[in-house]
Hints:
Low-confidence stretches: none
Largest sheet: 6 strands, parallel
Number of helices: 16
CATH class of the largest domain: Alpha Beta
Strand order of the largest sheet: 7-6-5-8-9-10
Radius of gyration: 25 Å
Bound molecules: manganese (II) ion
Amino acid sequence: MIDFYKEFGNLGYLANYSHHGFYKDGIFYKTAEHYYQASKFNDLEIKNKIINSSTPKEASMIGRDVNNKRIDNFKNYKLDVMFEAVYLKFSQNKDIRTKLIETRNQTIREMTVKESFWGVGPNLDGLNHMGKILEKVRYQVKNDLIDQIIANSYKKKVYIIGHKKPDFDSFFSAYLLSRILKSFNVDAIFAVRDEDFIDKKMINDWLDFKYEVVTDYSDKYFILVDHNNLDGIDKTHVLGAIDHHKITGEVSDLIEIEYASCALLIYDLFKSRYAFSFKEKKLIALSVLSDTEFLSSSRFSSEDKKLYDELDANIDVSQFKRKYLITTDFSMDINSNLFYDFKEYRVGRRIIKRSLIRSYSADKDKYYNLYVSAMKQYNVNLIIWCDYEKLVTYVRYNDIDIIYPYFTTSTNLIINYLVNEKYLKK
Ligand SMILES: [Mn+2]
């Protein structure tokens, strides 16, 4: 539930008085409120007075003055006008558009108690039209981004591709999006960057799809899924990107929302336009298992759970966990284990080279110090060590040891934690 009140604080961007201006027909409106109030009148003098007023409050006072003659039956249009105002505001201000999209499918409420039409009213049972319009706008701007990706892709051969060393989610997301785009008549090709798969067994058992291996990026167009670092791809060749982590500033016009898995995000984005098959839904659910350590990771949120349940995949999670959960094999040498689940992350100008280790408690006690002391030698600066018994995450960043009190394999979460705790400067 997203409850906002007035234009202040974290959620203030949702309010009509927030200072996010936009253009319509060559005219600049300072706030959505300016637009809404100005739309009540045909009289140019009043209109201009509203547009030129310096604050939304002033605009509202002029607009509500009963001495000013409104358009006939304005009340019949007012919901449409308000939708337009809010839509223009969010579609022309990318930073708050992103914030709005990040609220996923949560209910939005304007907590104004003296307003039972736009807000929730005194008994919280008001019409809350403002909240509903924000939800509609959220849906619309998300769809605009999808339309943009599809439009960019027409009449081109487009490679749908995930990260290097593909895991289940990256591999399947690329496949799934290529299927969906084909249904929109895009010449989409399912591709991987290499065949050095993580989750080998799970991929072998479930993802029997033909792919192309692409290593020369120079003469091709791409749509990136899951972990959108360019990694050698020219920015101008990227037609779109969909990711369930917020990590890079390398690609513009991307859809980047925190979801349990990239395939789950793709499902949520396209479910109103593409009929997912029973099999596809099951594989989406498996991608969630794979990316959340079989639903035990903190990454699996209550919003994710709603969607996961909606997939109705009927999966015995503990059975899958027994079969596919692979901890680090400590009979292997340190070098290959450090680079088994290895990724680079960019934080500002810094590059974080992180290795993910999965172990039970006994192996943690036995090997942790050994691996930490090998970091410098192998040029790794972040180890995320997940203990599957204690459900605790041990983090080593350069010379700093941190015990993260939850179980997570989300590097993004850990990096944000390091930044917030000032261990890591942006
Ligand atoms: Mn993923």
